[in-house]
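Here is one chain, start to finish.
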Amino acid sequence: MRIGLFGGSFDPFHEGHISIIKGALSVVDFVIVVPSARNPFKRGTLSSPAPYRYYMTKAAVESKFSSGECAVSDIEFGISGVSYTVLTIKALSEPGYISNLLKSCGVKKKRAEEEHSLYWICGSDILPDFADWYKPEEILGMCTLLVTKREGDNTDCEKKAAEITARLGGKIEFFRCTPTPASSSAAKKTGDFSSCPDLVRDFLQTHNLYESLDSLSFCSDEACETFYDAAIGMFPLLGGKRLLHTLNVGLLAASLAQIHGGDCDKALVAGALHDCAKEMDIEVQREYAKYVAGDTFVDKKLLHSPAGAYVAKTIFGQTDSEILDAITYHTTGRGDMTLTDKLVYLSDKIEPSRTYTDLTPIRAAAQTDLDEAMRMTVSSVKDKFEKQGRDIHPLTLAMMKDLGM
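Its structure:
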């Protein structure tokens, strides 16, 4: 089979990307879309963390294409360091990867396991600088460049392609796709996402994504790097909904820290990692929780909090006690809460994707009076527990006392 490989940031995924996939399918039999994890050309910029772009792209692709013609791969989450194209192609070329992916998409076993020809799908704007990519000759040794003319690109494509192949070898082919004015950078700059599929617009709204990312401007480069790396590191630990939730909490906590005079770095990291142990085996959670907090947490619904502090320390290298405590007590609160404790506790309850009740009044209060927002939140928790006949944890009672409840 002729397999097209379409890599990119997809930040956000838009109709132009869809047009390219459709055009490529006139040349190849199947397209594998590969959202970058750590893009070498955009390192250090405030692009969306990889899980947001992966799940956004996956939802859009699955709504627009059949499983027999296109799929989204998470291969780059397993690549250490910068996501160079040559490393991505090597990972995809590992024995069995593509055939197993094709079979999972319904391609018949015999066809899925035959020898495949690989095509790297790209726009003509990459041609002038392709020779400066990381190991371009290896890329051309593994796959054919499949190029479409970018709207507004004045490159003499045939001439440039001839220069590249004469110098580096390999093959470059061209295909046509329907021109679209869509641009990820323009969409983010203007806030006009009309060029994105409905599911992408819904995703962006659910997570308030690009507005939420503004909070990173309040944080140090080191904290931002920790946040981005943690987003990738938690990918195999958490399902999509939980992972995006915990990242949302980090972003909101950092934003509220800026408003209320807190430490934005600590709020970002503690919030982002607060649920890192949530989907581990319950007995593993119990073991980790006991190590951190003894028998303070026995309810299995609470174990992930101290277990999360253990994972944050042992797997993600966090040693700051304020960060680890905020993770430990994010479900119960406690007496004498630090500001970071409060920021993570509250953000966990009201981050943008939370929809379990009308959170508008609490979200509004959080912008001006953190303790009042805490009281409103804890009051809702108290009412829920009373209706369910559940006891309120002693740590929560201590928090309520401090809040004057």
